[in-house]
Amino acid sequence: MNTNEVSYMLEIKDLKVNIEDKEILKGINLHVNAGEVHAIMGPNGSGKSTLASALAGRDYFDITHGKILYEGKDLTELAPEDRAREGIFLGFQYPVEIPGVSMVNFLRTAINSMRKYRNQEPLPAGEFLKLMREKKKIVEIDSDLTNRSVNEGFSGGEKKKNEIFQMALLDTRLAILDETDSGLDIDALRIVANGVNYLRSPENATIIITHYQRLLDYIVPDFVHVLYKGRIVKSGDKSLAKELEEHGYDWIKQEVDMDA
Amino acid sequence: MTDQEKILNEVTGSDYKFGFYTDIDTETIPKGLNEDVIRIISAKKEEPEWLTESRLKAFRHWQGLKMPEWAHLQISEIDYQDIIYYAAPIQEAKYQNMDEVDPELIDTFNRLGIPLEEQKQLAGVAVDAVIDSVSVKTTFQDTLADKGIIFCSFSEAVKNHPDLIKKFMGSVVPYTDNYFAALNSAVFSDGSFCYIPKGVRCPMELSTYFRINAANTGQFERTLIVVEDDAYVSYLEGCTAPQRDENQLHAAIVEIVAMENSEVKYSTVQNWYPGDKEGKGGIYNFVTKRGICKGDNSKISWTQVETGSAITWKYPSCILRGNNSVGEFYSVAVTNNYQQADTGTKMIHIGKNTRSTIISKGISAGKSQNSYRGLVKVLKGAENARNFSQCDSLLLGDKCGAHTFPYLEVDNKTAIVEHEATTSKIGEDQIFYCNQRGIDTENAISLIVNGYAKEVLNKLPMEFAVEAQKLLAITLEGSVG
């Protein structure tokens, strides 16, 4: 336990981020406890994906101010691969294709890299395949998908399912799902949501980044935050998402812009 | 530091693992190239008169030639009088028993991963070990002889099988072929000879391991493979050299003759010393490799993994003379630091229904230049000839170059020739995706590059595919861990 007796899984303190001298995040404050699901919503260009990237450790921007603490550790001091090894998983908005590298090979490399970080022996091939079989069921993924090259020739839905599959396989503790619902039909949306719900537990936390409310019909968040112009301008429970669904973002924009 | 910069730093930090020198008593002749030197080499090899004459003829022809300049290469001038053309570990005769072999030599090949003791070798691989100008040991000769297969050093073949050598040497690559072929035909010292008689499927992989050891020397070896009707052989060559500041010249000839219904698979893992990070030293690798599908339904397949050498200039080619004959060329060429490669193939379609496939994967890193150069030629009589070429280039960083020079000459209307080419950069996105799954940048590059080259690596014999994968990783990674 922390001395101040509050131990968040993730704590973002007044985070400011620049891309090429333009301030994209203008002071984000957020804390996430284990067991919680947070939804971050907002109009396009509000900084949602930048926030996801900052958590995962992409380096095309500068953190100019603030702190990100993950389980008490300063996240900005960890390399992206070490953040992953500490249990942070980013579900990509646009999963990347890696030709010629089979999913099986890719995931075995990933799992064994993580095990090495924890001073564990590599997972024997048999156990690895068994683990894959188990996790595949969660997202109703075709078995031949894992023999194909990473994301190559996958449909939009397959790519997103593949992200959730990896999330399940890689001992995720904090999942950040960046627009996972974009480009999905209702069936795929349901499968992806089932996967997320299946993995929901008192030890794990999830941050869902989305533009639309519809994913939240399937995954009920504990908290909803609205990100606008680089700041969290409103937080609430799931009813906030409903409100946004009915009235759009304009009323929030007006409120904020009037204050300014 | 961005990921791109990190990659650049890492790839330029790699070390050459085979750069050691073995201190053995070596007999060398004085530097320089003239008719006397050629006579000395021939005398050292106790060659018959016809071969001495053939060397001299090649030398006289070479003197009238100029070094070719059409390749996309910057080659500093080579002083052919400043090279030693013959260097050999001092030995009584070719070793028959292991206990006669200098322990230093055994140790050298052990360090290279090529044990000369048969019982220690990979099951099913016979090796001809060539150091500088001579073959020191050929393994499994007796086992192979039981099937009528001849596998021996070129010098031995000249002594013991002169008719075969006379008949086939120079029949695919004549001394008039090009500048380096003429040079090799004049001064070649050793190499391997392989003969597979009619109807025999060679039961093991045959391989030649070329090692340059002595300083200031050139290596000029010849390999000749003759495969009779309905026979098959899979052949592999590997090459390494010590790390030195001077450039060393390697100009080899490989000839393959494939008769009716026969098949030859020729695989190369070329890892000559590439020079240091500043581009100092390294091997000049100027090689002529060509096979002829003489008989109907014959097949020659070249697979090469080129990671070494300061400069590579080679175009393993197929002359598809027999009807229905097949030529294949699968290549991965990696260049890093200041390495230069100009490599590709020639597919010459003469017979009817001849088919060829070219898959070339170039990988450039550092400040290197990597070119694919390939000719597909379909002659008038080559009805229904087919060719498919795919040339991909992968760039790591933005200081290197990738180039593609395809040449098509089609004189028969029924021919179908396809060419596809792509150039891609190893993506920051790809690397970050791997990072986000816990894979560090170095392993990510290795994974991505091996995935990219997989189509070609799959064509290698299994044991070597694993080695080649490691080699790709070593060539492109830093010396971390």
Tell me briefly what this model is.
The complex is a heterodimer of chains A (260) and B (481). Chain A has 260 residues and is of the alpha/beta class.
List the helices and strands and how they pair.
The complex is a heterodimer of chains A (260) and B (481).
Chain A: E1 10-19, E2 22-32, E3 37-41, H1 48-56, E4 62-70, E5 73-74, H2 80-85, E6 88-91, E7 98-102, H3 103-117, H4 125-138, E8 149-150, H5 156-169, E9 174-178, H6 186-199, E10 205-210, E11 223-228, E12 231-236, H7 238-247, H8 250-259
Parallel strand pairs in A: 3-10, 3-11, 6-9, 9-10
Antiparallel strand pairs in A: 1-2, 1-4, 4-5, 7-8, 11-12
Helix pairs in contact in A: 4-5, 5-6
Chain B: H1 3-11, E1 26-28, H2 35-44, H3 49-63, E2 87-89, H4 103-111, E3 125-131, E4 134-138, H5 141-145, E5 150-153, H6 154-160, H7 162-168, H8 179-187, E6 191-196, E7 205-211, E8 222-227, E9 232-240, E10 247-250, E11 253-258, E12 263-270, E13 282-293, E14 299-306, E15 311-314, E16 317-320, E17 326-335, E18 340-349, E19 355-364, E20 369-378, E21 386-395, E22 401-410, E23 416-425, H9 428-436, H10 441-457, H11 462-476
Parallel strand pairs in B: 3-7, 6-8, 7-9, 8-11, 9-12, 10-13, 11-13, 12-14, 13-15, 13-16, 14-17, 15-18, 16-18, 17-19, 18-20, 19-21, 20-22, 21-23
Antiparallel strand pairs in B: 1-2, 3-4, 5-6
Helix pairs in contact in B: 2-3, 3-8, 6-7, 9-10, 10-11
Notes on the protein architecture:
The complex is a heterodimer of chains A (260) and B (481). With 260 residues, chain A is of the alpha/beta class. Chain A has a single domain, classed as P-loop containing nucleotide triphosphate hydrolases (Rossmann fold), CATH 3.40.50. Chain A is built from 8 helices and 12 strands. In chain A, the strands form 3 sheets. In chain A, strands 6-9-10-3-11-12 form a 6-stranded mixed beta sheet, sandwiched between helices. A 4-stranded antiparallel beta sheet of chain A has the order 2-1-4-5, with helices on one face. In chain A, a hairpin with a 2-residue loop joins strand 11 and strand 12. The radius of gyration of chain A is 18 Å and the shape is globular. By secondary structure, chain B is α/β, with parallel strands linked by helices. In chain B, a hairpin with a 2-residue loop joins strand 3 and strand 4. Chain B starts with a helix and ends in a 5-residue tail after the last helix. The longest helix of chain B has 17 residues. In chain B, the strands form 3 sheets. In chain B, strands 5, 6, 8, 10, 11, 13, 15, 16, 18, 20 and 22 form an 11-stranded mixed beta sheet that branches. At the A-B interface, helix 2, strand 7, helix 3 and strand 8 of A face helix 9 and helix 10 of B.
